């Protein structure tokens, strides 16, 4: 399968959108583009399964390579393994839902959709590329439009949030860039190619110095404690689709980078820093959960809960066992879908009630059963109900973490487990105060339930959540090959 | 052996009905939803009975010992080559017994609800949730894998949450559902960690292998588990205790029982099904499922089970004497009876001679399901009649509800342990088992069963006799409704009458070999007398209106007040959650995040801004100034290069 | 006495510093432009001088001089265009007065 197609479609969609004038044409183009992208992802999975049977132990599949800047050994190199396929599918799904949710955007529709598709192009490129420089290039594409999305279509103190988000993420990228250049210059044949780099053993000193650059740099994207404060502000000010993209995909860019670049390329340093990573992620998990409990704004609540949930991803990476890594990737997918659904629903509620304060709502279930059900499902997924994706992912992380013996790792796992209780507290509190009880505000008496595009968006995401939740086997098996290779490198001396 | 597809259908049919009703219930099926769910459940029940019959009489035994049979397994999630979650169907005596109980009681409740819940706005949703519960509960009892049981454990938890909060616009119901979920979730945390511990040492999640590896003294897993200890307690004991914590949460054992009385906010048939007959005994079932591990490798944890069971039984019985809400009395009596089952398991030990408690516990679970469900269904009818849960609003309604009256009486006699009703036999075995093992437990249990008889008949007399008809109801009123409501009552009453005669020990025992439970008539005299004493005490106090109860209340004010306020356990919980967790952990965390962590970020930004404001004066906009700086710089560099370069 | 390389360099340096002085002290944009031309011409002089005295058989210096003259002409054209526009908007060509774009 030609992986370039996965980049060409968003690019063509984005360019076509720029040329169009009529708003509804813009929307339909975006929708069709993202549907095609989704279908292409299914084709990719099918092709991957077939390819995996013939050559089961390959590192990367469908590799494509052209020189880009031969003077510096920069090439256009694409390739996928199970992990990146999972992320690509996640991106396609979330973007499709995001396009559907933003159907009613009135202000500068064309520019909005252009930026949204551009973001998806960046994310796809990031997950596909096997060249560090190209990866960095796409990472930036996936950051900068967010500044505009929040600054123009946002709400609340949007300028502040947009600045904060852009600056912190740029700071992260700067660290990443330093790390990438360090890898480049310490490789004997000066290469950015991940496949080549993965065969090199960097000296302990290099690893120890530059691992933190890469891990923290990517970690900022994943809300690594204490660099997480862009998350609440950024998410709450962003427009609905922006929040969905931000929490659903953008945070995964970071965790994917942590896994694929930092941990994979510098295994020795990863082993050395593993306790630090674990401590930070445990803090994020529990502290994020407690902070969530106190939030009054739905979007803030979900943003803080994202910090807590992304802690599981980093915990899984930090634990370095194969199962934990699989769990961590599953958590990336699961959290991406779940949080996108959450933000989509919060956006729908906000469109109708014009408030996001939890205590101003109440009894919404009566007026909008469909939206409420979606909210319910997102909430239950978040608190790790079996049958929805969150459970399978978290359990895999727990089991993987428990395989690390020693009091320290055990304590960390137990701390992480404790969050399932706190999560239940804040999720149920939010659900009961917004959806249940008597109708609090009589003005909500005549609000309408979801319309077709919102329904479709919710269904797309819920389908993903339920599919993974009911049959997690396929996802874990999809990811296993890639995780095996990463874990194998971590184990070897 | 029957085709495993048929066995799989037992839990899957309710799932089908959940899916159908959940997706199309409100649009397509509407008032037919109940019928659809019931019909599917009838099939499921017949299959369950058929499978159980075949298991017990045909294929279950090998060499006279009942085997644990895995009838089909699908890998659901694989962690490593050893650890995986397999969705399986495990048939053994207790799971066969449980599928019959669960599907049967659920069927009764389905039928009862057909007319009891008629006209409800969310009728299809109700049946959808009920089906979800039935599916999860059947899946739970058939589990062949530690994580499978955990998965269904959570699912029954959530269906209980959904059903308690069925009347979602009542704040009380919403609070109660939340409380139920969170308290049991807290217990599940222990369960989860317990699973992690046990699975780590046995390196498997499969029940059969796990039990095999953790009970065989030669296996390396057990050796390490016994050798490694934390706080002076071996890892395997920790694992068992933590698993028991999960069970205690779901079974409303002290001190995790606080959610059960509040859970009565749900519709009454739901209370009958979930919070009396099936879900709450899941904890007992869990301990029974892992009984070999408990009894062989971690006997110390069984002492904890005994202690918790006895304490819960006694406490709940005392509280039940003071409550006036009919459903709450029943809830506490449920808790007390589950306490009986628990300590009965706790006093059992490994070995043929000492395993009587195990069979007794399962037997009591079985009989209790019938009479407790019956009590709740009767309570539902009574509540419909008087439109109140308060005992004081009732009285003298035996004429209005003849069938209910008789059924209620049978159930009360059964729970009080009066022969020949079902409760007598099972309670007798429990008492015998505790007599063998631990006299203190026996005496407490005996006292508790006396108190049980007392408060049940207090309930009975207050509702059906006590005073002339309450003013809400007149003689013509009857809420017994159509046959659909009466049928389950009658069936369950017959069950409460007859199930005691089943030679239970023959079928269900810890090691699969038949246990002989001969009734010792001399032994039985004591407990029966105690039960009768309780009944007559209640009759004396509550048959007619008199002031004796008030006097007793005043005489034992301290105890009464404490029991009336449920020994202030709720208040302690509120204190811990509100004061400590929210105020001392949650708020500081949120504050810290907004002010310290975010403050640091903002400080960085502000510092940059301040510095740049300070130095922006240099950017004067005057070209010639720039040129001077440039010249000076260039000159300086030139000097540096000429003279400074060595 | 023949004028040698030193003499020429002396002239060009003087020319350069006269230009720099004018560039720093004048406030009138046209004079500043003229100062810049002086600086450029001093450079031209240097090119020619070095070319003639050090590498007489090559033409690089002369070539660059022509190049600089061409650039200077273009620059003057642009600069005068700017000056005219500035005069139109500010009624003045004093550099001190055109400082709205600072910061």
Structure write-up:
The complex is a heterotrimer of chains A (493), B (646) and C (103). Chain A is mostly helical and 493 residues long. Chain A contains 20 helices and two strands. Chain A has one domain (5-491). Helices cover 75% and strands 3% of the residues of chain A. A two-stranded antiparallel sheet of chain A has the order 1-2. In chain A, helix 16 (369-382) packs antiparallel against helix 18 (407-434). Chain B has 26 helices and six strands. Chain C is 75% helix and 0% strand. In chain C, helix 1 (5-25) packs antiparallel against helix 2 and helix 2 packs antiparallel against helix 3. The longest helix of chain C has 31 residues, at 60-90. Chain C is elongated, with a radius of gyration of 17 Å. The chains are: A mainly alpha (493), B mainly alpha (646), C mainly alpha (103).
How many beta-strand segments of chain B?
A: 6
Number of domains of chain A: 1
Q: How many helices of chain A?
A: 20
Main sheet of chain B? 2 strands, antiparallel
Q: Structural class, judged by helices and strands of chain B? A: mainly alpha
SSE sequence of chain A, one letter per element: HHEEHHHHHHHHHHHHHHHHHH
How are the strands of the biggest sheet of chain B laid out side by side? 1-2
Distance between the termini of chain A: 35 Å
Give the overall shape of chain A, derived from the CA principal axes: globular
Rounded Rg of chain B: 31 Å
Short description:
Chain A is mainly alpha-helical and 493 residues long.
Give the arrangement of secondary structure elements:
The complex is a heterotrimer of chains A (493), B (646) and C (103).
Chain A: H1 4-19, H2 23-54, E1 61-69, E2 74-80, H3 82-101, H4 109-128, H5 132-141, H6 144-153, H7 158-186, H8 194-197, H9 204-221, H10 230-237, H11 240-265, H12 267-293, H13 298-319, H14 322-353, H15 364-367, H16 369-382, H17 389-402, H18 407-434, H19 452-470, H20 473-491
Chain B: H1 4-29, H2 33-59, E1 61-62, E2 65-66, E3 69-78, E4 84-91, H3 93-116, H4 123-142, H5 146-164, H6 171-202, H7 207-215, H8 220-227, E5 229-230, E6 233-234, H9 235-250, H10 259-262, H11 268-277, H12 282-289, H13 291-297, H14 299-322, H15 326-347, H16 356-386, H17 402-416, H18 422-437, H19 439-464, H20 483-498, H21 504-507, H22 521-542, H23 548-555, H24 557-564, H25 569-615, H26 623-644
Antiparallel strand pairs in B: 1-2, 3-4, 5-6
Chain C: H1 5-25, H2 29-53, H3 60-90
Helix pairs in contact in C: 1-2, 2-3
């Amino acid at each position: 399968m030609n992986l370039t197609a996965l980049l060409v479609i968003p690019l063509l969609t984005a360019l076509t959108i720029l040329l169009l004038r009529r708003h509804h044409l813009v929307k339909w183009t975006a929708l069709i583009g993202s549907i095609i992208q989704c279908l292409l992802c299914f084709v990719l999975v099918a092709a991957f399964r077939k390819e995996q049977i013939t050559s089961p132990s390959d590192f990367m599949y469908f590799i494509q390579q052209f020189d880009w800047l031969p003077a510096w050994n920069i090439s256009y190199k694409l390739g996928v393994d199970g992990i990146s396929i999972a992320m690509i599918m996640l991106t396609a799904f979330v973007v499709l839902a995001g396009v559907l949710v933003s159907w009613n955007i009135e202000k500068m529709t064309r520019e909005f959709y252009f930026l949204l598709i551009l973001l998806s192009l960046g994310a796809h490129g990031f997950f596909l590329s096997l060249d560090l420089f190209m990866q960095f290039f796409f990472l930036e594409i996936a950051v900068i439009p967010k500044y505009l999305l929040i600054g123009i279509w946002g709400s609340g103190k949007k300028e502040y949030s947009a600045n904060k988000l852009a600056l912190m993420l740029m700071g992260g990228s700067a660290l990443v860039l330093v790390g990438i250049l360090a890898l480049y210059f310490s490789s004997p044949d000066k290469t950015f190619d991940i496949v080549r780099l993965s065969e090199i053993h960097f000296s302990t000193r290099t690893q120890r110095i530059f691992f933190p650059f890469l891990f923290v740099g990517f970690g900022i994207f994943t809300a690594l404690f204490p660099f997480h404060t862009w998350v609440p502000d950024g998410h709450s000010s962003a427009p609905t689709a922006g929040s969905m993209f931000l929490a659903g995909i953008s945070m995964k860019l970071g965790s994917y980078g942590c896994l694929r670049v930092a941990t994979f390329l510098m295994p020795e340093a990863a082993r050395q820093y593993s306790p630090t990573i674990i401590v930070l992620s445990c803090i994020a998990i529990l502290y994020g959960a407690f902070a969530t409990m106190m939030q009054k704004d739905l979007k803030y609540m979900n943003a803080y809960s994202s910090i807590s949930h992304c802690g599981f991803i980093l915990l899984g990476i930090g634990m370095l066992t194969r199962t934990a890594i699989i769990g961590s990737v599953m958590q990336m997918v699961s959290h991406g879908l779940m949080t996108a659904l959450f933000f989509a629903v919060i956006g729908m509620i906000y469109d109708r009630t014009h408030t996001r304060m939890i205590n101003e709502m109440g009894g919404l279930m009566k007026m909008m059963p469909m939206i409420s059900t979606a909210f319910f499902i997102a909430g239950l997924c978040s608190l790790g109900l079996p049958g929805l994706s969150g459970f399978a992912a978290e359990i895999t992380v727990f089991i993987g973490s428990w395989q690390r013996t020693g009091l320290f790792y055990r304590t960390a796992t137990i701390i992480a487990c404790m969050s399932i209780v706190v999560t239940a507290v804040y999720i149920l509190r939010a659900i009961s105060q917004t959806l249940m009880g008597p109708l609090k505000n009589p003005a909500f008496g005549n609000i309408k339930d979801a319309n077709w595009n919102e329904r479709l968006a919710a269904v797309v995401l819920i389908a993903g959540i339920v599919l993974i939740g009911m049959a997690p086997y396929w996802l874990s098996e999809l990811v296993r090959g890639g995780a095996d290779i990463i874990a194998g490198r971590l184990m070897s001396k | 052996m029957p085709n495993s597809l048929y066995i799989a259908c037992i839990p899957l049919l309710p799932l089908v009905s959940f899916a159908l009703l959940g997706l199309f219930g409100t649009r397509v099926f509407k008032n037919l939803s109940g019928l659809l769910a019931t019909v599917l459940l009838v099939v499921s029940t017949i299959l369950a009975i058929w499978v159980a019959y075949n298991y017990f009489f045909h294929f279950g035994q090998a060499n006279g010992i009942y085997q644990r049979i895995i009838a089909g397994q699908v890998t659901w999630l694989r962690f490593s080559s050893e650890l995986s979650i397999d969705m399986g169907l495990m048939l053994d005596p207790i799971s066969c017994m449980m599928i019959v109980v669960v599907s049967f009681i659920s069927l009764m409740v389905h039928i009862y609800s057909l007319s009891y819940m008629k006209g409800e706005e969310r009728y299809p949703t109700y049946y959808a949730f009920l089906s979800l519960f039935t599916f999860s509960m059947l899946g739970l009892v058939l589990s062949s894998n530690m994580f499978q049981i955990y998965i269904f454990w959570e699912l029954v938890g959530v269906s209980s949450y959904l059903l308690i909060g069925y009347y979602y616009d009542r704040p009380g119901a919403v609070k109660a559902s939340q409380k139920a979920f969170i308290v049991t979730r807290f217990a599940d945390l222990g369960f989860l960690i317990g699973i992690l511990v046990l699975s780590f040492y046995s390196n498997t999640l499969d029940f059969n292998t796990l039990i095999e590896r953790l009970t065989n003294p030669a296996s390396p897993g057990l050796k390490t588990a016994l050798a490694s200890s934390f706080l002076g307690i071996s890892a395997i004991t920790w694992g068992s205790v933590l698993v028991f914590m999960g069970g205690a949460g779901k079974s409303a054992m002290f001190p995790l029982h606080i959610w059960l009385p509040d859970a009565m906010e749900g519709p009454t048939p739901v209370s009958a099904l979930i919070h009396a007959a099936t879900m709450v005994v899941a904890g007992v079932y869990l301990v029974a499922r892992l009984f070999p591990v408990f009894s062989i490798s971690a006997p110390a944890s069984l002492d904890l089970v005994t202690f918790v069971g006895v304490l819960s039984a006694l406490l709940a019985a005392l509280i039940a004497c003071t409550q006036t809400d009919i459903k709450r009395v029943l809830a506490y009596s449920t808790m007390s009876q589950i306490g009986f089952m628990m300590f009965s398991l706790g006093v059992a030990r490994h070995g043929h001679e000492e395993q009587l408690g195990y069979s007794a516990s399962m037997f009591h679970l079985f009989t209790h399901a019938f009479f407790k469900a019956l009590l709740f269904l009767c309570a539902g009818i009574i509540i419909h009649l008087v439109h109140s849960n308060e005992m004081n609003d009732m009285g003298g309604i035996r004429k209005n509800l003849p069938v209910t009256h008789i059924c209620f009486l049978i159930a009360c006699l059964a729970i009080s342990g009066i022969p020949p009703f079902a409760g007598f036999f099972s309670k007798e075995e429990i008492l015998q088992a505790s007599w063998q093992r631990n006299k203190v437990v026996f005496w407490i249990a005996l006292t508790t069963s006396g108190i049980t008889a007392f408060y049940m008949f207090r309930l009975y007399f207050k509702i059906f006799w006590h005073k002339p008809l309450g003013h809400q109801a007149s003689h013509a009123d009857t809420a017994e409704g159509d046959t659909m409501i009466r049928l389950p009552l009658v069936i369950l009453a017959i069950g409460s009458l007859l199930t005691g005669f089943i030679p239970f020990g023959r079928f269900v025992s810890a090691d699969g070999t038949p246990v002989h439970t001969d009734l010792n008539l001399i032994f039985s005299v004591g407990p029966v007398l105690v039960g009768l004493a309780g009944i007559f005490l209640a009759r004396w106090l509550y048959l007619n209106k008199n002031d004796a109860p008030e006097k007793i209340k005043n005489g034992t004010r301290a105890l009464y007040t404490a029991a009336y306020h449920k020994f202030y356990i709720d208040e302690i919980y509120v204190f811990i959650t509100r004061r400590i967790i929210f105020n001392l952990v949650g708020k500081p965390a949120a504050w810290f995040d907004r002010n310290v962590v975010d403050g640091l970020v903002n400080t960085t930004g502000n510092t940059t801004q301040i510095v740049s404001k300070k130095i922006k004066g240099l950017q004067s906009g005057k070209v010639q100034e720039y040129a001077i700086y440039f010249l000076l710089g260039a000159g300086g560099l030139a000097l540096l290069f000429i003279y400074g370069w060595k | 006495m023949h004028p040698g390389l030193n003499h020429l360099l002396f002239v060009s340096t003087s020319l350069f510093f006269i230009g720099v002085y004018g560039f720093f002290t004048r406030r009138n944009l046209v004079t500043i432009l003229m100062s810049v031309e002086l600086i450029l011409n001093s450079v031209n002089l240097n090119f020619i001088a070095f070319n003639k005295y050090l590498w007489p058989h090559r033409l690089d210096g002369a070539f660059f001089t022509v190049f600089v003259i061409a650039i200077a002409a273009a620059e003057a054209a642009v600069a005068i265009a700017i000056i005219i526009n500035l005069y139109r908007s500010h009624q003045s060509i004093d550099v001190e007065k055109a400082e709205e774009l600072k910061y």
